[in-house]
Every structure is written in C-alpha cells, then in structure tokens.
Amino acid sequence: MLTRSIRSKVTFTNAFRLGNSDIVFPAGAYEILFEEELLQGVSFEAYRRTVTYLMVRGRGSHVGQTTMHMTTQKDLEHAIACD
After folding, report:
1. Is-contact 12 27, C-beta < 8 A?
2. Structural domain boundaries, residue 71
3. Of all residues in the chain, what percent carry a pLDDT higher than 90?
4. Are the C-beta atoms of 63 and 35 separated by less than 8 Å?
C-alpha cells in the first residue's frame, strides 16, 4: 500500500473546538497533516484520505513540544466555517 502525506496551514482568528472535543484551542496558525493511501485496482491514480491531524505547538512551559490531534475532515471544515 502506498501512502502520501500532505501538509497545509490554517489560521483561526478565534478560539475553537474540533468536533465534540472538550479541548478549546486558542486562535492562531496551525499546521494540518493529511495522510492518504493510493487506491489500487483503478485505471487512474487516485487517493483516499485516511487520517487528518491538527498539529499543535506547545506554549508556555511546553514550548518546543508539538502534539498531533486526530480529527476528521468534516470537523476541521466545520471549525473553519465557524471562525
């Protein structure tokens, strides 16, 4: 199975939540990581998204640390639309 990763950035002007999470993320710029797998058995190259991560850089005493929060494309798009 062949996979690929795509990185993107999004900036939120307001604090936000992803889906039903209790975590409130502060406004700011965030990196998004999408992982996709190659669909096999089709006559053209096509990929299916398998996971979406919001990369959160540490602040305060956690500066230098980055955590990956798994989310869905739908929850991410909803958070962007609500901002």
Report:
1. yes
2. 3-82
3. 73
4. no
Query: Who contacts 44 (Cβ-Cβ below 8 Å, separation ≥6)?
Result: none
Question: What pTM does this model have?
Answer: 0.82
Q: Which positions ≥6 away from 49 have C-beta within 8 Å?
A: 34, 35, 36, 73
* Residue 56: HSE in the Cβ half-sphere, 13 Å Cα cutoff: 19
Number of domains making up the chain: 1
Report CA-CA distances (Å) from 22 to 1, 17, 25, 38, 67.
Answer: 35, 7, 10, 33, 16
Tell me how far CA of residue 12 lies from CA of 3, 17, 80, in angstroms: 29, 11, 7
Average pLDDT on 23-39 reads: 95
pLDDT at 55: 95
CA distance 6 to 11: 17
Query: Which two structure tokens, joined as six digits, stand for 61?
Result: 């005493």
